[in-house]
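In response to the reviewer comment on reproducibility (Comment 2.3), we provide here a single inverse folding case reported in full, input and output, so that an independent group could reproduce the run without further information from us. The structure tokens appear first.
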């Protein structure tokens, strides 16, 4: 075995063992033939980058399989795709929340704003335009969700990446120290994980995501309406904060439950209750449970990254208490969803042992 062949076989270990057993020799032969015809000398004993990338992409497609793939691969594929879908629903709510807040804030002339509201730049100024665009850019999450449920996965991926990147291009984060950089990284991690799930889950061998119009419309309309409603709630909380009509401890607790980690904890708790209830009689909540477990990991890190000791300040103490409760909810939800998902994986393995690999073959 030559050095080049050994290195090709090493990279092919990214593929599942069952796939390698069928096609490893064929793939190694094809790689070596291409290397022999495309390289002038024998000094280059390393696989090309594009060859490595193609093997890695194939490994993802096989391990996150679609119809006709082994049960475990199909289950993981469905879990990642549902993580992307659930994440897009959640971030559509957040995007409409931000957009609603922008309309409530930037749509009011500066001289009519109540005392205590931060300055937002002069009307028509470049700074104001930049801030408004940064607040409205998260509406791209709704665009991505709409494109996905109508079967346009490439458009959904492009819109999701834009929704993740554009706000920080318009308003770059300011890092005062390494701690603030870590907090910022933890805060964007849930969105990053969701975008990765969208990119790798909806590959060319994935089942179509297109829904009929009568079903696709509620999938988009409900999170949009929920986000706008939350924007009104946040507006009321802001007015109560400025007016001082509600006790400070209650306001602090309320604010903690309408930020991204707070809403994530409530969403994952609802998903956990549903999966636990359905899992007693049905097996199909398995992919949803695995999807929730995937999304719970970055949510835990996002909430943990914002916690800080309260010290003698009562407000900070209340913030820490609410954050601690949310962290406990996220951990409990993530563990429960992981348990339900592992049971589904075991059931998939039992199905494969009983009936063998399903028909349909493997992607090439």
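Designed residues, in position order:
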């Amino acid at each position: 075995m030559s050095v080049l062949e050994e290195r090709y076989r090493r990279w092919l270990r990214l593929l599942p063992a069952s796939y390698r057993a069928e096609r490893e020799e064929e793939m190694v032969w094809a790689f070596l033939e291409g290397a022999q015809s495309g390289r002038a000398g024998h000094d280059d004993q390393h696989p090309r980058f594009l060859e490595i990338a193609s093997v890695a992409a194939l490994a993802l497609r096989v391990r996150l399989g679609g119809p006709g793939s082994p049960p475990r691969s199909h289950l993981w594929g469905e879990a990642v795709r549902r993580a992307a879908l659930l994440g897009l629903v959640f971030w559509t709510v957040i995007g409409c929340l931000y957009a609603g807040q922008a309309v409530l804030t930037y749509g009011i002339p500066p001289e009519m704003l109540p005392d205590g509201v931060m300055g937002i730049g002069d009307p028509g100024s470049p700074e104001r335009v930049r801030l408004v665009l940064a607040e409205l850019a998260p509406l791209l999450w709704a665009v991505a969700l709409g494109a996905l449920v109508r079967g346009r996965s490439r458009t959904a991926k492009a819109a999701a990446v834009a929704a993740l990147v554009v706000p920080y291009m318009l308003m770059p984060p300011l890092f005062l120290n390494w701690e603030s950089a870590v907090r910022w990284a933890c805060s964007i991690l849930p969105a990053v994980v969701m975008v990765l799930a969208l990119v790798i889950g909806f590959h060319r061998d994935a089942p179509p995501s297109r829904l009929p119009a009568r079903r696709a419309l509620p999938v988009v309309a409900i999170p949009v309406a929920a986000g706008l409603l939350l924007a009104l709630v946040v507006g009321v909380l802001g007015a109560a904060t400025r007016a001082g009509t509600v006790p400070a401890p209650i306001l602090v607790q309320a604010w903690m439950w309408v930020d991204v980690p707070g809403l994530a904890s409530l969403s994952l708790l609802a998903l956990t209750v549903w999966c636990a209830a359905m899992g007693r009689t049905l097996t199909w909540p398995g992919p949803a449970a695995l999807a929730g477990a995937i999304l719970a990991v970055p949510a835990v890190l996002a909430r943990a990254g914002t916690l800080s000791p309260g010290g003698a300040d009562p407000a900070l103490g209340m913030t820490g208490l609410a954050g601690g409760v949310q962290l406990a909810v996220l951990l409990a939800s993530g563990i429960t969803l992981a348990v339900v998902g592992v049971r589904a994986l075991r059931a998939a393995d039992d199905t494969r042992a009983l009936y063998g690999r399903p028909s349909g073959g493997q992607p090439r």
